[in-house]
Amino acid sequence: MTAKSFRPPLTRVLISLIALPLIQATFLSTAAWDPSALGMEPDPLAIYRQWARSPSPQLRIQAARSLRGRSGADTRVALLTLLADPHPAVRAAARGELVLRPVAENQALGAGILALRSRTARLEGVRAILARKQDPTPFAADPDPAIRTRALASGRVARKALEAALLARGGATRAFALECLADPKLATPRVRDPAEPVRIAVSRTTARAGDLAVLLKDRSWRVRLAAAQACERLREAATVPALIEALDEKPGRVRTRIARSLVAITQADFGFDKKRWRRWWIHVRENYAPPPIRTRTYEGHTTSMIRFHKIPVVSRRLCFVLDASRSMSKPAPGAKGESRWELVVHDLLAVLDHLPKGSRFNVILFRTGIEAWRKRLVAAAPATRHACRTWIANAQPAGWTNLFDALATALADDDVDTLYLLTDGVPSRGAETTRKTILDEIAYLNRYKLVQINCVQAGGSKGLGKRWRGFLEELAKAYDGVSVRE
Hints:
Blueprint: H1 10-28, H2 44-52, H3 57-65, H4 73-82, H5 88-99, H6 106-114, H7 119-131, H8 145-153, H9 159-165, H10 171-181, H11 184-187, H12 196-205, H13 209-215, H14 221-234, H15 240-245, H16 253-266, H17 274-284, E1 307-308, E2 311-312, E3 317-323, H18 340-354, E4 360-366, E5 370-372, E6 378-379, H19 382-393, H20 403-411, E7 418-423, H21 435-445, E8 452-457, H22 471-478, E9 483-485
Parallel strand pairs: 3-4, 3-7, 7-8, 8-9
Antiparallel strand pairs: 1-2, 4-5, 4-6
Helix pairs in contact: 2-3, 2-4, 3-5, 4-5, 4-6, 5-7, 6-7, 7-8, 8-10, 9-10, 10-12, 12-14, 13-14, 14-16, 18-19
């Protein structure tokens, strides 16, 4: 065979010359490209810059991850830049990579975050500092109250900074500082502080029944609720008459919590009957001491005849946070051909039909994104019930499971006091998708909201995976809620 026969056709050469750059560009634009596979030495910053400019959030996430294991100022600054990204998942990825940076970078990282101009970036940065277990004290004096409270919420801020924060203008800042200092002597003078979070913090800090008696009459339902919870914690006879008088509360979650605290302290149970409680107290008050705690079922949890998936509906200001992801279209266990979604809709409509007069409600669906029926709670009038029925009848399961963003949306409504969360899967989309970060963020967001979170695990716990088992139970327990599996 002659050498001439080995020469490729001219057209094949031209195609190769054109196609090779296109193939290289394709590799550069995808997260799967590995320069080392082509015998090239990878340049992490070059890869980062290529992906960080992409309109795709997934590639920007890969940009953050491409710097893993790389130290030095250049890669640190690159990650700090991504903290201001408009997409929350990208910011979370950058934050996660900053958490993994070497301990030797602690000082430089803290200084770099403090110097960021973007409020969003500094907020993400302080969360990285907290996850790294670094000292957050420098952030306790940040001009932005949200960043100050993030630092204070860690419980690791120096005492001198806490005392300074106790005099800050922001109510939440003062509240966090008061709780961190945990000094009952500092609580009493602030029992009438104009900021609601501070009065809630007083209820959690005080050791005086007199302070709680004042707070049980507070204009804020949250403060009254916190005071009732604190009475149960304090377990002193002096709180009993104040709780009995507080039973004048309108029906709903706060009155239920007051009755529960009375039962927990006294081990007697007269429900919401103020006259019977008064007569009982007259007979026992002399030298009264609360009896030992016994486990019992509180009447306040069972008086309501309305149920959402077996959970009593006691609240008059409630929001249903419902999973409408693709998996909800699966058949419901034990149902006669009905899907999980169809059962949810049926149960929701039954609750809406029986909500008592004066109730306010909303419904939030979560798939890959969030769809709220209304921006805020609305009165449960015939017209609004009908509108909600029509809206929910047209909804169909689709997409992934964005649980955290749905909860955050629900908690943003200051009017809501109870959530009913139903899901059949695990979080796969949203600003937070890990168990720890979701629980930590909800703890921060709900610290002074005091919203009760009830949870329903639709479809049982099979297939959730070990790391997610018990997640909903943990969430409900943390916020005075009930959790069931179906």
